Amino acid sequence: MTVLPFELEAIRPAEKGRADFFSWGLYDWLVKRPDHFRIFRGTWNNGNGHDPENPVMYIGKRDIDGEIFGALLRRVCSTGRNPESHWYSAQHHVDEWEDITEEFYQRYMEIGVCAIHKDLVHKWLESDDGKTRTCQYCKKQETKHVKIVQVEQVEWV
């Protein structure tokens, strides 16, 4: 894939600067950097360094040397963030990064921001009986479980 599989206007949120089903941050990034649209599952994160067990998604462009110029996808798509691009090179283990562009954008078109933020941004719709809720975007469903928890309380009098 050398170009986006959709027109940019197809993913433009209704209100400037605010996400809805689609991310304003991703839309804005792609408008400003139309050739930096590739999505990579990276094995590097700023917290743990090289961490193949906990991959994170990056957006950017791979150059002919295999280095990647881009940013963390979640940072690009987070409200109030001004994403900075960085060079990711051999020290970031870019040879292990997997290009997931096609599968990501296919999923993004189906479930919107849930493809980026997973369980952090669901738009819940509660059932009439209040026992279940379903995400309007990705259709994830959860059932309410109520637990009675006894807590020991200490008072000084």
Tell me what the structure shows.
The chain is an alpha+beta fold. Helix content is 18%, strand content 23%. The chain is built from four helices and ten strands, in the order αβββββαββααβββ. The chain has helices spanning 24-32, 73-76, 101-111, 114-117, and strands at 38-42, 44-45, 49-50, 56-62, 68-72, 86-88, 98-99, 124-126, 132-135, 141-143. A hairpin with a 5-residue loop joins strand 9 (132-135) and strand 10. The termini are far apart. The mean pLDDT is 92.
List the keywords:
23% strand, alpha+beta, 157 residues, globular
Order of helices and strands: HEEEEEHEEHHEEE
- Give the spatial strand order of the biggest sheet: 6-5-4-1-7
User: What would you call the structural class?
Assistant: alpha+beta
- In helices, the fraction of residues equals 10-25%
N-to-C span: 71 Å
Shape assignment: globular
Q: How large is the radius of gyration?
A: 20 Å
**What's the rounded overall pLDDT mean?**
92
Sheet with the most strands?
A: 5 strands, antiparallel
Q: Would you identify the regions where 5 or more consecutive residues have pLDDT less than 50? A: none
Number of continuous helical runs? 4
Proportion in β-strands: 15-25%
Strands, total number: 10
